[in-house]
Specification:
The complex is a heterodimer of chains A (about 100) and B (about 500). Chain A is mainly α. Chain A has a domain of about 35 residues: Histone, subunit A (Orthogonal Bundle), CATH 1.10.20. Chain A has three helices and two strands. The longest helix of chain A has 18 residues. Chain A is flat, with a radius of gyration of 23 Å. In chain B, the strands form two sheets. In chain B, strands 4-6-5-10-11-9-7-8 form an eight-stranded mixed sheet, with helices on both faces. A three-stranded mixed sheet of chain B has the order 1-3-2, with helices on both faces. Chain B is globular and about 65 Å long. The chains are: A mainly alpha (about 100), B alpha/beta (about 500). Chains A and B meet through α1, α2 and α3 of A and α9, α10, α11, α12 and α13 of B.
Chain lengths: ~100, ~500
Amino acid sequence: MSLTLEDVRRIAHLARIAVDENEAADYLRQLSGIFSLIEEMQSVDTTGIEPMSHAQDVWLRLREDEVTEPDRHESFQSVAPQVEAGLYLVPKVME
Amino acid sequence: MLNSSLKELAAMLAGKQISSVELAGEFLRRIKALNPVYNAFVTLAEEETLKQAQAADEMIAAGRGQPLTGVPVAHKDIFCANGWRTTAGSRMLGNFVAPYDAHVIERFRQAGTVNLGKTNMDEFAMGSSNENSHFGPVKNPWDVRAVPGGSSGGSACAVAARMAPAATGTDTGGSIRQPAALTGISGIKPTYGLVSRYGMVAFASSLDQGGPMAKSAEDLSLLLNVMVGFDPRDSTSLQREAEDYGRDLERPLAGLRIGLPREYFAAGLSTDVERAVQAAIGEYRRLGAQTVEVTLPNTRLSIPVYYVLAPAEASSNLSRYDGVRYGYRAPEYRDLADMYQKSRAQGFGPEVKRRIMIGTYVLSHGYYDAYYLQAQKLRRLIARDFSEAFKHCDVIMGPTSPTTAFNLGEKSSDPVQMYLSDIYTIAVNLAGLPGMSIPAGVGDDGRPVGLQIIGNYFSEAKMLNVAHRYQQATDWHARMPEGAKAGG
């Protein structure tokens, strides 16, 4: 598999990371190197092997439906870039 | 005192030979003297540290002391500690003051230990040299030209240079074991699920596991007793009976079966590391252990599998950094999309962006089966290799890292070369097994060599026993780097 500059731009867009033309060329070179390492996986026939997503067989626990978290929005919002009247501020998305 | 074990420090505290305030003050003094050279700590909060020490002294005076009450411990800057800046080595979290405690921090607080400061690390724990930190690289106390390993490089350096009696780390692909090996200290990554990930900045959630780093296996056992425990706030936390990880330390090793994986002693292992590891295994034979050759045939696949799964999980975990609720926001932007893209481009460093992009790609439409699913299937084969091997042995041993500490800058321009240095540690995370590294000699360059000990699930007490007996018979773990003596 070989990546193209177009792939790099598409991935950067999906990842929401701004990448300029010079950086795109660097990423192309570095990611291609990493993918050639990753390609080695394709040499193994894994037909019939069950995918392993986790080290232990765990399942989501159920808990009682009770309040566990107090309202701490002030302290949580104290680390936000921009807050007003208890709301997070972002640039306008609709005119 | 610098070389005292945690047990000795605790006895001095309990016997009122030294107060916790004095002890913390002494280590803070050393940090201030040595940190300008080593850069192991990114945040100190002297007043808060001394306040915690004062509280510990009161606990001891009131007869409410526990085994580690009053002992100072440094924490990797990946663990949220209420009121402390917690950066994960990233510009993205450069101004993030945690509004709550991680479960690990909570446990240490309840145990009465004193938070000595937050240690440097590769950004979001992605790296094997600590060169990926936004706060600059950490130096190896054995040779300042060398890296300390990563990603828990600051914690490793702090313990090796005796700036802290012990520290916490996290290990996703070797990030406790490899820096422990490269700086001549001991570190253990427990079975996945034993230490809660709550409040530990996430990298790859199915692999991340916290663990202790210290001068000896005995110290690790005491720290593990504090760190391990069920936490309902981590959905993968395991609910098990509490155990004393030091209960088997003194058990003789006669009859112990050590598995030596053929693949861990093959091409790629440098001769000086191999010589040191073989000498350590020779010592184990003298202690009554037997060795048996085992095979882990899918070892070479662990690197490609890891570099699909870990970036995939990272790309998902790190999508939370969008400049809205916390973390870095770009100063200028046109609209919301531009704000996301610029905040992430400026807030993340190069290695983190590379991994997010790899992860985004392997999870994207049309590539999922070929990469992500294939990697998960191979993960199963890698885990099976270990269960086969453990039919023939009690523990597995080999090198932690193929070389001693490499020089700063030596591998930083080539990500693939850097990734290959994790060949012996990654498979352990993929399988979810416990693994540790203990100092076992030096290489031709005088830099430390680590012996890796891999155990079966939940066999930490056995592994610590195996490590402790070696440390009773040898003194590699007690050696202190020359440079650290400058700290007075």
